[in-house]
Amino acid sequence: MRIAIIGAGRVGTALGRRWATTGHDIIYGVRDPDDRRWSDLGQVTTPPLAVSGADVVLIALPWAAVDQVLPTLEVRDAVVLDATNPRDELDGDGSGAEYVSKVLGSSRVVKAFNTTGSANMEDPAYPATRPMMALAGDDTQAKATTTTLADELGFDPIDAGPLAAARDLEHLAELWIRLAYQLGHGPNIAFALLRR
């Protein structure tokens, strides 16, 4: 698949590099493609050009950049993976993913890849079980694609329900951040769904 990654921070580059090793065609969309910081990423262009012809679009932007970048994108029928975490920057009771869906005019948005850190995206191997990757969306095919992409990286994909459930995933991300950084557990922690 051709995967456009909008944003080249830690999450975007970690996922892009891993998906490249599984055979996907990766292109990054960044504000300044000529910046030398991106020289080792491979294909780099502007966000609008990156999404052209993409099968999957990963939104891996800081929340503050969403309103500037998303209105410039024409994602058409691509699966959109929303890895953003708005934290306390939303008004009302909606989720960041629902906002992303509205701004892009896409019903194929799936909230995913937001509930753990980039270190786990680079290496999700843990003893005994795989870390879960919860996902939420309204489009069954888009969720199936997301499930495959998460599984390829070594995560245990968990369908958490419709896109409205994205707010739960965003709260789960807040818990992970608190445990990892504020309470001193560090970034090498992950959530798992245990079964018996």
Q: Percent of residues in beta strands?
A: 15-25%
Number of structurally distinct domains: 1
Please tell me what the overall shape is: globular
What is the CATH superfamily label? NAD(P)-binding Rossmann-like Domain
Main sheet strand line-up: 3-2-1-4-5-6-7-8
Radius of gyration: 16 Å
**What count of helical segments does DSSP give?**
7
Q: What structural category arises from helix and sheet content?
A: alpha/beta
Query: What is the CATH architecture assignment?
Result: 3-Layer(aba) Sandwich
Oligomerization state of this entry?
single chain
In angstroms, what separates the terminal alpha carbons?
35 Å
The overall pLDDT, averaged over residues, is 95
From N to C, what is the helix and strand string? EHEEHEHEHEHEHEH
CATH class: Alpha Beta
| CATH T-level topology | Rossmann fold
pLDDT < 50 stretches: none
Major sheet size, sense and barrel closure: 8 strands, mixed
Query: Would you report the number of β strands?
Result: 8
How does this structure look, described?
The protein has seven helices and eight strands, in the order E-H-E-E-H-E-H-E-H-E-H-E-H-E-H. It is of the alpha/beta class. The protein has a single domain (2-182), classed as 3-Layer(aba) Sandwich (Rossmann fold), CATH 3.40.50. An eight-stranded mixed beta sheet has the order 3-2-1-4-5-6-7-8, with helices on both faces. The model has no long low-confidence stretch (mean pLDDT 95).
